[in-house]
Predict the 3D structure of the following.
Amino acid sequence: MEYTMPLVDYLLTDLEAYLWFCSLDGASGFWAIMMTLRARKISAYVCALGHFEWLRMPFGLNNAPMIYQRMIDNALWGFVQPKGGWQHYATLMRAAEDRAHQLHDASNELLLTEFGPESTSRTKFQAYRAASTVTDPVTELVNSPIADMLSNGETDESALVPVFDRRSFVDDICFGGSTFDDCLATLDRLLSRFEECRISVSFTKSIFVQSRVDFLSHEVSREGIRADPKKLTAITELSFPTSKKGMQSFLGALNYYSRFIQDYAVYGATLYQLKDADFGSDGELTTARRCFETLKQKVADAPILRHFDRTKEVHVMVFANEWALSTTLMQEHEGLLHPVRFSGRVLKDAEMNYHPAEKEVLALLLLLKQCYTQLAGRTLHVYTRFSTLDWIHRTKSLFGRAIQFSVLLSPWHLKVQRVSEKDTAFAQLLQSTITNFVTLEDSLALVAPPTKGSPTVRMDPALLYARLPRDYQGLVVSFDGSANTAKY
C-alpha cells in the first residue's frame, strides 16, 4: 500500500501559539496492530523450529509505518469508522477477547491432561503449534468486513470531528495549548478518542503538560526549537572517519539537523566529494579535516530557532559562492532578526558556471520551495549582494535562464534590498547566531573543495547591465535604443 507520510518540517510548524506542550508515544509500536490472515501468510518465515507466522504486525515490514500512520490519522481526524460505529466494534472485540481467553484456558487444561507435568519442551512446543492453527474469535473479527474498514471492508460515514489540526509521525504525537487548561482539555479529547479507537499510549515514554518537551529528536518550547542536546553531544564526540562510509554516516547525522547550521552545505561540500582513495595513505585530507572540525563546532553552537510567526514580517538573507548555496529565514524579535531556519545545498556541475548573482536566485528558489506553505502569499524582504534578483523580478525583456527565473519568481511579492560590504547597519540587525554573508565570504578561502569542470564563469550579455551595482558611475559610449524596442 501507499500512504503519504508527514514531513518532520511540517510537524515542527504552527507551534508558536503554545505555552504548554504534550509529547505522546504509542505503546507497543507496530505490535498494537493485528495481522490479517493474508498478511500472516505473506510475512511468514521458516527456521529450524518450523514455519512461523506473525500474529501482530512486526517491525521491518516495508509498509508497516504507513499502516500505523493511517491508523493514527484516522483516529485523530475521524475519516471512517467500522460498521455500526466504534462503540459497537469495541463491544464485539471485548466479546471476542473473552471467548479467546476461554479457549486458551481450555487448551492449557487439555495440554496438562494429555502430556502431564513430566512432558518435555519439545512436546509442549508441538502442542502449542497445533493449537495455534485454530482460528480464534479475535482473528475472525479482525478479518471480517467490519474490522477491515480501511481497505475493502464495510464502513460507515464517520461522525467524529478532528481532535486537533495536527498529524503524528507514526507513534509520536506533539501538541499543546495556549494555557494549562487548554492543553489538558486537548489531552482529554485525545485520550478519549484513543480509548474509543482502542489505541494505547505509553505512560513512561510520554510527557504531559510541560513547558519543554522532546519530539522527534528536537526540544520544543515556547522560545523555539532546539536540537536534542544528547544527540549533538554524540556527534561532537565523533573522531574523523577512516572510510567513505563512515563519512557518509557522519553527514547523514548532520543532515537531519542541517536546519540549525547556517552554512552546512558550504562546509559539507568538501566532505561530500571525498572518495575511498582519499582515505588512503596518499590522500590529502587537510581541507576535509578543517571542514569536519568546523561543522562539529557549529553543531555544538547550534542556536535556538524561533517559531515561525504568521503575524510578523519575513526576512530572507541569501548567499552563494562558487560551490554552494545558503539561505537564512528570519523574523524580528526584540529589535533583532532571529533565525527561523537555515537551508542550503551543494551546487551541481552546470550550476557552478553560473554568475554569483544567478546563484543567489537559486538560493532564494530553494527556500521558497522548502517553506512554501509558510511563505505563500506573504511579502518577503530579501537581502542580497547583487541587484540582479530585483531586476529579474521586475523587467519584461528577458531571454534564456533569466526567463525561467522570472517565471518561478512571478507568484511572489519580493522587496529586494542590496547590502554592500560597508553596510554595518544590516550587520547590527542580525542576532549573534547569524553570520553576515560578508563575514562568511572572507572565511571560506581555506575550505574550498576541489573544483569540478571548468572554473570559467559564463555570463549572459542580457544580464550584464543589471549586474552593475546601484552606485556605479560611468559614461555611455553608445546607445542604439534597444531598451525601448521590442525584441520579439
